[in-house]
Amino acid sequence: MYTEPTTFSAEEYFATQPPPPTLDHDIEKVREFIQRQNKEGRSVVLVTSGGTTVPLELNVVRFLDNFSAGTRGATSAEYFLKAGYAVIFMHRQFSLQLFSRHYSHSTNPFLDFLEIDGPLSDANNSNDPDAAPIISVTPEKRADLLEVLSMYKDVHKAGTLHTLTFVTVNDYLWLLRAVSQEMALLGRKSLFYLAAAVSDFFLPRQKMSIHKIQSGKGSLHIEMDQVPKILKPMVDEWTKEGFIVSFKLETDDNLLLPKARQALERYGHQVVIGNDLHRRKFEVVFVSRKESEFDEYWLRIDLGEHHGPAHHAKEIEEDIVAELVKRHNAWIEKGKL
Ligand code: 9Z3
User: Fold this and answer.
1) What is the ipTM of this complex?
2) Based on the structure, what is the number of domains in the chain?
3) Range of the domain at 59
4) In contact, 93 and 52? CB cutoff 8 Å
5) Is residue 27 in a domain?
6) How far is Cα 276 from Cα 300, in angstroms, rounded to an integer?
7) For ligand 1, is residue 280 a contact (CB within 6 Å)?
8) 59-68, 115-124, 166-175, 233-242: segment of lowest average pLDDT
9) Is 34 domain-assigned?
10) Relative to the CA of 230, which ligand 1 atom is closest?
């Protein structure tokens, strides 16, 4: 039998889907963080990062996932910190994180540039700590590590980074709503940078199988419901003064601008950043409104470009964040008129 999939409003969604068990505890910590940053006069950005999952069973064995390594979010969060923002980094568990992303186990494993000075046998046989071999960093890796490590230590000392994790789209939605409501305290000094790749479809708890779905009955048919359009209540109710930036991911180039414009029209927030899956590391488009017109601003980088003493490859997030900081400051100033 065919049943119409339910279209949940955000309100219906939160009335029928249970919150993650750690929500209250997580939000208490977020509240303390925001209050402190507010007292210290900082702007706060919420960066969401990584993909959300949709479990198919309550005792979950299988789930659908959304594509995202978390590079956009983790990289941008570092540039926001450099620009003086406090950052709430809300990311998919085990996706890339700030600072440690430079030493990913698959592309730049840190064990490869540590050296052992002194005979290895001493380490195993001697009880004398002075005889133990010393571990040092390969000379050519030192400048890079020092740069990352100093920033990591500075951020910890300043207490300007707060981290939250999600796995499922349900975790994400509940957290996003609660964090947005807390951010309202900051008025125009709050920025939302929604880079997480969020499922469009989900399986409501009421329709989920309790146990692992059994094979042997032929093909599997799953009907999913639409995830509510969360940006609408975010803009209209939860964070009326926040500067909201969402991302639009497409794989068909022809859809990128129309879909980005449609999102702005629908939700009335400040900026949609459109990115094509395969070009996202060197090209994005900012879509915003100028009175009744759409404004499009393309940002491109040359991937061969190098900068800084350690000759890192240029990261497009540096320019994305610089452009947004400019726009967010203008937004703050406008609020003072
Ligand atoms: C993005 O478009 C991100 O830029 C990427 C980043 C997921 C492409 P990586 O983590 O990739 O660097 O590997 N995020 C938003 C995707 C999304 O789900 N957007 C929703 C939509 O398009 C709206 S919030 O409908």
Assistant:
1) 0.96
2) 1
3) 10-110+157-213+220-258
4) no
5) yes
6) 12
7) yes
8) 115-124
9) yes
10) 24
66 Cα: distance to centroid of ligand 1 (angstroms): 9
Question: In which band, very low, low, confident or very high, does the pLDDT at 121 lie, cut at 50, 70 and 90?
Answer: low
Q: How far apart are CA 246 and CA 248, in angstroms?
A: 7
Nearest CA to ligand 1 atom 19: 248
Block residue for tokens 């990352």? 148
Question: Which ligand 1 atom is at minimum distance from the Cα of 197?
Answer: 18
Q: Please work out whether the CB of residue 194 comes within 6 Å of at least one atom of ligand 1.
A: yes
Q: State if residue 249 touches ligand 1 by the CB under 6 angstroms criterion.
A: yes
Greater confidence (67 vs 76) lies with 76
Q: Of the residues 66, 67, 198, 284, which should be mutated to test ligand 1's pocket, given the most ligand atoms within 8 Å of the CB?
A: 198
Q: Say if ligand 1 is within 6 A of residue 52 CB.
A: no
Q: Is residue 287 included in any domain, yes or no?
A: no
pLDDT level of residue 48 (50, 70, 90 thresholds): very high
User: Ligand 1 centre and the CA of 196: distance in Å?
Assistant: 5
Give residues with Cβ within 8 angstroms of 113, minimum separation 6. 137, 138, 141, 145
**Could you identify the atom of ligand 1 that is nearest to the CA of residue 194?**
24
Identify whether 239 is part of a domain.
yes
Q: What is the CATH number of the domain that holds 98?
A: 3.40.50.10300
- pLDDT, residue 265, reads 95
Q: Report the separation in Å between the CA atom of 61 and the middle of ligand 1, taken as the mean of its atom positions.
A: 25
Which atom of ligand 1 has the smallest separation from the CA of 75? 12
